[in-house]
Design goal:
single chain; alpha+beta; eight-stranded mixed β-sheet; 3 helices; globular
């Protein structure tokens, strides 16, 4: 598996605009436009930190995984994302190691990317997302 680096740290929030203003006030950084990702039932926006991004995730309804996270824990870090060159290769490699995956095959992510999650039981309690950027 060829890892390209950390892509982002995702933060579950109840109000993207509120947290965007906090980052603007703290660091003078602007969040990008809010994207609706119906496949994952979230609204999202990224703040570019130059070598990594912060992703704000807001649930679109009370049934989404992010809504359940917020109800249980409140706003906070949800997962971190590792960018890989080939997500299919990465998943195949993890399956050969008997790593428990949430996604057996990639699904649609932000900006046309492909994503898949490693189950926290196989990662010491940490939710890890794998991401392959959309090919241009």
């Amino acid at each position: 598996m060829r890892i390209k680096g950390v892509h982002h740290i995702a933060v579950a929030v109840d109000d993207i605009e509120k947290y965007s203003k906090i980052f603007k006030n703290l660091f003078d950084l602007d969040a990008g436009d809010i994207e609706i990702n119906k496949a994952n039932n979230v609204g999202l926006s990224f703040v570019d930190l130059n070598n990594c991004e912060v992703e704000f995730l807001k649930p679109l309804d009370n049934e989404s995984a992010i809504a359940k996270f917020l109800a249980k824990r409140g706003p906070g870090i949800h997962h971190f994302c590792i960018q890989v060159e080939d997500i299919h290769e990465a998943l195949d490699e993890l399956k050969k190691k008997n790593i428990e995956l949430i996604d057996q095959t990639p699904r649609q992510g932000a900006g046309g990317s492909l994503i898949a999650f490693i189950h926290p039981r196989s990662a010491g309690g940490i939710l890890i997302e794998l991401k392959q950027e959309k090919e241009e």
